[in-house]
Amino acid sequence: MNDFKKINIIYSYDFQEIGNPKYKGWCIHLVCLEGAGSFVYNERLFHLVKGNVAVIAHSEAVRNIVATEDLNVEMIIAPMNVLVSQLPKNNPSIGGCIALFGNPILPLYTVESERFVDDIRHIRKRLDEEGNVFYNEMMGSLLLTMMYDLFNYQANMHDLADTTDRTSFVVKGFTDLLETGITKTQRDVSYFASQLHVSTKYLSSTIKRITGDNVTHLIDKYTIPMLVEYLRDDKMSFTQIADEMNFATLSYFSRYVTKHLGMSPKSYRISFSPKRNL
C-alpha cells in the first residue's frame, strides 16, 4: 500500500499557542476547563473562564496573553483550508466568522461545554492512529461534528454589532450572495461589488474590517466545498470540473486546487480514495 498524506491537526494544552504566529492561516478551537485567562484580539480585551470556548481564526491578531496559575485548557489547531474542505455547500460558517472576529468567546452551558470537550477528545484519541487508509475521512468527520456543534451553539447568540446601516447592508448582501452557491462560477471580487453597487475597494475594506478576512478568502471558503465534492466524484474528469466551475484554463484550475487543498487534483483524488492503493 502506498503512503498518503495525513491532514495536519495539532492537539495542545498550551494557552500561549493562541498567539503563535506560525498558526497564521490556521484556526484554534479551545475550551477552558479550569482557571481563567485573558488576551487582546483584534485590539479588544477578552476574558476566558471555565466552560468557555474560544475560536481564534487569526493568531496574528492575538497579543497580551495572561493566565492564572491554575488555567487548564485543551485545544484543536488545524489549517483553515482543512476545516473548510470538510464543510458542505451553503454552510453557515461565514456568519459565524463575522461574529467570532468581533467576539471569539462562546459562553457555553455546562452540557454544551462537556459535549465540545467530548468532540475534541475524540479527535485527540484518533490523532496518532496508524494504518487506517480512511484516516483523512475519519478525522474530517470528527472535525465536522465539532464545527456543527459550535454552529449550533452560536445560532442566535450574536448579531452584527457596531456597524452602520450601509455596512450591515453590504455585509449581509455579500453573505447572501455567497450562500446562493454563485462562487461555483463567479469568484472575482468585482462581480460581488457590482451586484452590491459598491466599489471593489469599499467591499474589500468593509469585509476585512467586520470579519477579519479578505473578500477572496471568504469567496474561497464557499468555493472549496463545491470543488471538493467534484474532486471526490471520480466520474468527472478534471477538464469537466474546470469547465463546470468556470476556470479559465485547466492549469489555473490545477493551481487553485494545489493552493487551497495543499496538493494537485490528482494527488487529492488519490488521497481521498486510499482504498485504490490496497
Oligomeric state of shown chains: single chain
Enter the CATH topology name of the largest domain.
Answer: Jelly Rolls
Biggest sheet record: 5 strands, antiparallel
**SSE string, helices as H and strands as E:** EEEEEEEHHEHHHHHHHHH
Which residue ranges are poorly predicted, with pLDDT under 50 across at least 5 consecutive positions? none
Beta-strand proportion: 15-25%
The tally of domains stands at 2
Q: Helix proportion of residues, in percent? A: 40-55%
Computed CA radius of gyration, to the nearest angstrom = 19 Å
Strand order of the largest sheet: 1-7-2-5-8
Number of helices: 11
- Tell me how many strands there are: 8
Summed over residues and divided by their number, the pLDDT gives a mean of 87
**3D shape:** globular
CATH classification, class level of the largest domain: Mainly Beta
CATH architecture of the largest domain: Sandwich
Helix-and-strand structural type: alpha+beta
Q: What is the distance, rounded to the nearest whole angstrom, between the alpha carbons of the first and last residues?
A: 5 Å
